[in-house]
Design brief:
two-stranded parallel ribbon, mainly alpha, 9% strand, globular, 233 residues
């Protein structure tokens, strides 16, 4: 793992200290009320396609690395093999699950996390707890603020990739430049994403972070196939 000890200085403005949290609370509360019919429909569809429980709770690191339960609608069944072990994720992922991942509808329950204060609408995406020990010192500072629904790249870039390095560097940039205007731009980006398609999330194609693959551009499937071919050789 490469070392980078450059200290991150979070934005320290009236907006970042006080207004942002108030807006998070008010917007998430309003969204939950307005979207309550959709949430009810989602619960019914979850019972039909995936059964109980309808909510998937995943432990994720929040502000200062504090662990919290992040809520999402389930996108997979609980099917098991003859030994009672869960089948591989690709076999449990349903067509309905792919749809709600592609449209980000599975993330609607995270509005409750925002209401509680575990998350913010905009902020570094909460990743796996296992990643905590893999970040370099600079990237580890992405936990200086509350995680969010998304932290889109809004700085113009010629890169069409979204590597782990690009994501983490973007997270750090956001932390150092939190502002009302930046959050508004990202909220509009979230809205656009909901009405678009996200095949990477839908098919779970992104390679897992292992601390050494910051610049990996291949899909999970491509990496696994290369490993298999290497073993055969």
């Amino acid at each position: 793992m490469e070392e980078n000890c450059e200290k991150v200085i979070p934005s320290n403005t009236f907006y970042s200290r006080y207004v942002k949290r108030v807006l998070d609370f008010l917007i998430s509360l309003f969204a939950l009320i307005v979207l309550s019919p959709i949430l009810l429909i989602m619960v019914i569809l979850e019972l039909i396609f995936h059964g109980r429980p309808v909510i998937y709770a995943s432990h994720r690191p929040g502000k200062d690395g504090k662990i919290f339960c992040m809520y999402k609608f389930r996108s997979m069944t609980n099917q098991t093999d003859e030994n009672g072990d869960l089948l591989p994720e690709e076999k449990r992922l349903t067509s309905f699950g792919r749809f709600i991942r592609r449209t980000s509808l599975d993330e609607l329950p995270e509005l409750f996390n925002i209401l509680k204060g575990d998350m913010s609408i905009i902020g570094p995406r909460p990743l796996l707890v296992e990643y905590l020990k893999l970040y370099n010192p600079r990237h580890a500072q992405r936990h200086l603020v509350r995680p969010g629904l998304a932290c889109f790249r809004i700085i113009p870039s010629d890169s069409k990739t979204w590597t782990w390095r690009e994501q983490f560097d973007n997270d750090i940039w956001y932390i150092e430049h939190i502002s009302f205007l930046t959050d508004v731009k990202m909220i509009f980006a979230i809205a656009k994403k909901v009405f678009g398609n996200n095949d990477t999330r839908a098919n779970d194609t992104r390679v897992l972070f292992d601390g050494t693959n910051l610049d990996e551009t291949r899909s999970k499937k491509e990496v696994e196939e290369e490993k298999e071919n290497t073993v055969k050789i």
